[in-house]
């Protein structure tokens, strides 16, 4: 059960300003559930920000799925029941996320592609990284918390 209070939007913005990305913030919030240190979880999420730097799958989504893998994943062969549970939790997360954002792709959520310099400039000019992305991270943490609390 997740007992830690999730970061508020201003804390998420501050973390972004200090170089902590969306996937890192999401993964870092689930130390108790995964049994890993916040620093380890943030390292795990480090390569996924900005849709893996390519505008692909949203880093907050990847971070949430990584946490689900750590909590519900299987680590050996012939663990079909465990794999099915993980896939069901993953599906639920993505469905709930897409109810709010209609896509799990970073470039579709932002409306611009961070991997293209001219579009990245627009993202920064419009302040999307510090306005939209913190909400995406906060919502991802809330959805993940809800799924982890389900029986």
Structure description:
The chain has 151 residues and is mostly helical. Helices cover 71% and strands 0% of the residues.
How would you sum up this structure in a few lines?
By secondary structure, the protein is mainly α.
Form type = globular
Radius of gyration: 15 Å
The unreliable regions are none
Give the biggest sheet: none
- The H-and-E topology, N to C, reads as HHHHHHHHHH
Question: What is the mean predicted local confidence, pLDDT?
Answer: 93
Q: Count the helices. How many?
A: 10
**Straight-line distance between termini:** 11 Å
Total beta strands: 0
Secondary structural class: mainly alpha
- Which percent bin holds the helix content? over 70%
Strand content range:
under 5%
Task: Give the helices and strands, then pairings.
Layout: H1 9-17, H2 22-28, H3 31-34, H4 38-45, H5 49-55, H6 59-72, H7 80-101, H8 106-110, H9 117-125, H10 128-149
Task: Give short descriptive properties of this protein.
151 residues, mainly alpha, globular
């Amino acid at each position: 059960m997740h007992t830690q209070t999730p970061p508020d939007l201003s804390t998420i913005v501050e973390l972004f300003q200090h170089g902590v990305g969306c996937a890192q913030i999401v993964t870092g919030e689930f130390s108790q559930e995964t049994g890993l240190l916040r620093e380890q979880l943030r390292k795990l999420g480090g390569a996924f920000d900005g849709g893996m730097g390519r505008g692909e799958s949203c880093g907050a989504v990847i971070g949430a799925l990584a946490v689900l893998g750590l909590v519900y994943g299987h680590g050996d062969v012939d663990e079909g029941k465990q794999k099915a549970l993980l896939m069901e939790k993953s599906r639920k997360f993505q469905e709930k996320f897409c109810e709010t954002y209609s896509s799990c792709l970073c470039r579709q959520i932002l409306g611009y592609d961070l991997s293209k310099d001219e579009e990245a400039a627009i993202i920064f000019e419009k302040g999307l990284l510090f306005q939209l992305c913190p909400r995406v991270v906060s919502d991802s943490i809330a959805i993940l918390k809800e799924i982890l609390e389900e029986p």
